[in-house]
Each structure stands twice: as structure tokens, then as C-alpha cells.
Specification:
Helix content: 40-55%
CATH architecture of the largest domain: 3-Layer(aba) Sandwich
Number of helices: 15
Distance between the termini: 48 Å
CATH topology of the largest domain: Rossmann fold
Strand order of the largest sheet: 2-5-6-1-7
Number of strands: 9
Largest sheet: 5 strands, parallel
CATH class of the largest domain: Alpha Beta
Oligomer: single chain
CATH superfamily of the largest domain: P-loop containing nucleotide triphosphate hydrolases
Number of domains: 3
């Protein structure tokens, strides 16, 4: 019997959960790059499927840097003009304006400009450069966090200016989370090809042993039961929370929680993922889900595709992190119970196509 009053797991997206499986390798990679003098990198792009923990990971990095006196962190939203939002925060929040007590001369687009903290500043680029100059003089660094990027005009403009700021040696750093398609669209913009050189952090499966230990500790289940639970999640971050949440509700009996576990994943994640796939992507995934072995040859034969047709769909779905192709010549679905969802949904929607 579980004695805890409050459920230690959460069904909320994006918020850092009380029970969090840390990604220590990835976390240390980003921190080491940003903290190195000079920095090895000033930008990271965090990618993975919906519910894999992109936002939580970005928050972990931000919180770690925020705890250091030389760092300031600013979160921006892609639904607003990013440059204007950034300039507005830099010109109004006391943690930034304290460095702008005296006027500082800067040059923007070839024009010398004398600014004062008490006067209204209308150009976002002038405000941003002015503040970054002041931060640099005080040995401060600025981390910008942007969650769920899309390739809209605000993001394109911001990325273009960020590239200039890095080139001019300003102490500005950037973390962006996004789905593969959105990141890829942004990279393919004519003036933003520098993003192809920006390192990616891919949110792969969580550590099974750490998940099992967490379940054992928080749900009063045996180690064998905890291991079975971890296997059920396939290391998928949201599934780890959902299974833990409903198992807690069922007093540690994970088998009684499986129906709710399945329904919650389907309603809140899989329907959305499925709706964003093309018909041919769905057909390919149906062949993978239906395969008894996961062998590439079996998959190709089942849908009558040549290798030339098969390869681009395989590669794209691996990059979306819906498929895993780590074992040469084999494919498998990365999401728990998604095989069943694919088969049932495809059969209902396209029952005459296979």
C-alpha cells in the first residue's frame, strides 16, 4: 500500500515534474560547451517527438545556469515578435537595466547612437546591442530559451540577428526546442543555413535502470515489477509519468493502470502525432507495426516498395524519432503501444489500401 498523500507523477506537459529522470550526458554536454572559456558552442537545438521531455530538459539547463551569478536567462515565445519581446524585457526588467545607468555609445548599421536608460528606445536591435555591451562589461552572459520553434517570420528574423550577435562576439546563448519538421524548415531558409552547423540534442529513451529504481522507490513495488513498468514505457518520457501516475492511483498495481495508460497516450499524444503524418508515412509505419521481425526486407515486401522508395521514408521517420534504426537492417517503433494504435487506426481509416 502506498502511504504518500500526493501523487508524485504528473500528467502535465512541459512543466518540470517532481519525479524527473535526468539526462546527465546531454546536460553536461550543453553546460560544458556554454561554460567553457571561450565557449565551444553558443546554440543548441533540442529535438524529439512530442512528450519526449524537450521543454523539461531546456528548463534543467536554464535552471542550472540561472543559479550562477554571471548568467541571466530570458524565455521568449514564438507567438510574439521575438526581437521586440527581447528588447522590451532588456529595457524594462531591473536585472538588466541596473547595468544601463549611464549612457553607452554603440554602433548599429553604421550609425553611432548615444543611449540612456531613462529615455525610450525604439529600435529593438539598438536596445539588444546596448544591453549586451553592458552585460559584457560586467562579465555577464545571457541565455535565450525558445520553446517549440516554428519557421515563422519572428523566428527567422531572430535567428538572423542572433547569428550577427554571435559573430560580433556578444555573450549571448540560445536554446531552442522543436519537432524535427519545424527545425528542418528553419534550417532550409536561405539566410539561416548556419543552423545546419548548430548541434542537436536528441531526446532519446530514458535510462531503464534509473526509471525502474524510481518506480520502486515511489510506488512501493518490487524491483521486478518496476523493471516491467520501465520496459512498458520504452523509455518515453511522457509514458514514464503517465504509467507512474495511474499506477499510484491504483495503489501500486500497474496492471490495473494499463487501460488508462493506453487511453491517455492515445488521446493526448498519438492522435496528434498521427494527424501530422502523410498518408505514405502512415502506410510505411503500418508495415513496420505489422511486421513480425522488423526486417527491412519484410517491410519492403509487404508494401511492394523498392529500396529507392523505402529509404527516404525510413530516414525521415527515424529523424522524427518515431522509428529506431540502430540495429542495421531492422526497424522498430519508439513509442509504447503505438504499434497497436497504428494498426487499429490504419485499418479503420484505410482498410482497403493494404
Amino acid at each position: 500500500m502506498i502511504n504518500k498523500k500526493n501523487n508524485p507523477y504528473t500528467l502535465m506537459f512541459g512543466k518540470q515534474p517532481a519525479q524527473n529522470i535526468p539526462r546527465l550526458v546531454e546536460l553536461n554536454e550543453v553546460l560544458d560547451s556554454f561554460l567553457n572559456e571561450p565557449a565551444n558552442q553558443q546554440i543548441y537545438m533540442i529535438t524529439g517527438v512530442r512528450g519526449c521531455g524537450k521543454t523539461v530538459f531546456m528548463t534543467e539547463v536554464a535552471n542550472e545556469l540561472k543559479s550562477r551569478k554571471e548568467w541571466e536567462v530570458l524565455e521568449l515565445s514564438t507567438s510574439q515578435n521575438l526581437l521586440n519581446s527581447m528588447a522590451d524585457a532588456l529595457s524594462k526588467e531591473s536585472r538588466f537595466t541596473q547595468f544601463l545607468k549611464r549612457g553607452i555609445g554603440v554602433s548599429v548599421a553604421g550609425f553611432g547612437v548615444q543611449l540612456d536608460a531613462q529615455k525610450e528606445i525604439t529600435s529593438p536591435q539598438i536596445t539588444i546591442k546596448n544591453t549586451l555591451d553592458a552585460l559584457k562589461k560586467h562579465d555577464k552572459k545571457l541565455l535565450i530559451c525558445i520553446d517549440e520553434i516554428i519557421s515563422n517570420d519572428y523566428v527567422k528574423e531572430f535567428a538572423s540577428i542572433f547569428q550577427i550577435l554571435v559573430r560580433e562576439d556578444y555573450p549571448i546563448y540560445l536554446l531552442m526546442t522543436g519537432l524535427f519538421d519545424n527545425i528542418n524548415d528553419l534550417r532550409n531558409e536561405k539566410n539561416l543555413t548556419f543552423l545546419y552547423r548548430a548541434p542537436e540534442i536528441k531526446m532519446k529513451a530514458l535510462n531503464m535502470a534509473t526509471m525502474a529504481e524510481n518506480y520502486k522507490t515511489n510506488l512501493d513495488v518490487s524491483l521486478d515489477q518496476a523493471k516491467e513498468m520501465a520496459k512498458l514505457t520504452l523509455g518515453y518520457s511522457f509514458a514514464f509519468q503517465v504509467l507512474g501516475y495511474f499506477t499510484f492511483r491504483h495503489n501500486g498495481n500497474y496492471k490495473e493502470a494499463l487501460s488508462e495508460f493506453r487511453q491517455y497516450l492515445e488521446d493526448y499524444v498519438y492522435e496528434k502525432i498521427w494527424s501530422e503524418l502523410s498518408y505514405m508515412d502512415k502506410k510505411f509505419l503500418y508495415a513496420v507495426a505489422s511486421s513480425k521481425t522488423g526486417k527491412a526486407k519484410e517491410i519492403k515486401d509487404s508494401i511492394g516498395w523498392t529500396n529507392n522508395k523505402y529509404t527516404p521514408y525510413r530516414d525521415r521517420l527515424i529523424k522524427k524519432m518515431i522509428l529506431n534504426g540502430d540495429d542495421y537492417g531492422y526497424l522498430k517503433i519508439t513509442l509504447p503501444l503505438f504499434n497497436d494504435y497504428i494498426i487499429n487506426t490504419f485499418d479503420n481509416d484505410f482498410d482497403d489500401d493494404m
